[in-house]
Amino acid sequence: MAVIKWLPESKDDLRRLYNFILPHSSQAASRAIDAILESVDVLVKFPETGQPWEPDTDYRELYVRFGAKGYTVRYRLFEDQVIIARVWHSLEDR
Description:
The chain is an alpha+beta fold. The protein has helices at about 10-20, 25-45; strands spanning about 5, 50, 60-65, 70-80, 80-90.
């Protein structure tokens, strides 16, 4: 089983996404973060669930459904680790 490691940037992304939704609905903000965390937890047992991001890299992207759009989690596989690099809303420019 893989170990999940969150890079500082990805933790900042979660805070930013939460704070963006919070003024509109604290419940929705919590549900969004929960959806992301639950999806990432799947990577512990199935680290290759996401689609390859670019050919010849270890990076993959996992789409997290939430509401009409959703979120993208970019991560990298390294040995027995799943390293969460970034998290974006699907409407954000990256």
